[in-house]
Amino acid sequence: MKKKPFIVMILILLVLSTFSAVSADKGDNNGKQKGKHKQFKLGVETLLEDEKELIEGKRVGLITNPTGVDQDLNSIVDLLHNDPDVELTALYGPEHGVRGSAQAGEYVEFYTDETTGLPVYSLYGQTRKPTPEMLENIDVLLFDIQDVGTRFYTYIYTMAYAMEAAQENDIPFIVLDRPNPLSGEVVAGPVLESEYKSFVGNYEIPLRHGMTVGELAKLFNEEFGIGADLTVVEMNKWKRNMYYDETPLQFIAPSPNMPTLDTALVYPGAALIEGTNVSEGRGTTKPFEWIGAPFINSTELAAALNEKDLPGVTFRAASFTPAFSKHRGTLSNGIEIHVTDKEDYQSVVTGLHIVKTIHDMYPEDFEFRAENSAGISFFDNLIGNGWVREAIENGESVESIVDRWQDDLSEFKEVREQYLIYK
Q1: Domain 261-385 adopts which CATH fold?
Q2: What is the pTM of this model?
């Protein structure tokens, strides 16, 4: 009978010991996660924690949108506005605006930000480059926007125009670096030819450039003669092989039709459909992942593309009715792009196969967008030349088309190496 209290006490000690060990282990794991989280830094975090002297006591102009946040999702607008050491004096919005509410191509006029009371200038539409009047109250100009790693995404040209304006007005320009969501290793697609320059391709870079915005800023500044007083505030612990979902960051839609990382993955090739009369899925819940038109047979197209056995992707027959944009309110049939292995997936090559397959299967209905007075179609602006469209129309294979741009791509890769920050 005397042994019972002793046994009970032993059992209690064992339970407490086990609980303590589990708690300690859990605490260690949480500590490791938190430590890892702290080690990874975005440019905005490096600026405010380690390099604040760049903006302290200065009147700051900020080019940003909803993606301009730290890892805890605090807006850089609020972080700077509430910082007693910083005088935030003006905001500048790219396409879609500072708050990201405007649709593609929609002009956002000058207004006053309700939260901060600051003036907000549009850098899309009538004024893509800040005027001297817009910069009157500025000592330093900051850029903090998430790019998606594709040549025809317009934010990088907003950055370049702002760099030009900063140089012309003797204002230092600071880029707060962010990851390339498609990793910083893959470089693919044709290099833009100079006669096809536009706001969806203003410099001779390939469709998938494999660079961060900070690295691009350095390349633009040197290779294309901008000559701005440029500082790139670097990230910490970002590696070139990281896709966005391999960082500790939450994905925030950089524009209304770029809702997820899956969208960004297919975008470099799927967006070529914008240069045709086929819907790229705008006006649906799956922009750039759904592709179709009223004249397409979904089952036939999906089967034809799956027969090609393209790496890292499969196609599902799909139908949808866009709420706006092409074929608005009309049932469109086509495909959904499912990326099965992002490492193997070749977005540009896949996009070309989709365009060519629809062109070949529906020759009476498929059309490239009309040429302008200079004989340039919007498809040419997107792909960066006129010969790819001609090659598709002449029945050339995708393989031969891809071979033709390899020399220019190799030359770009050599130039690119000089401007890589994260080796």
Answers
A1: Aspartate Aminotransferase, domain 1 (3.90.1150)
A2: 0.89
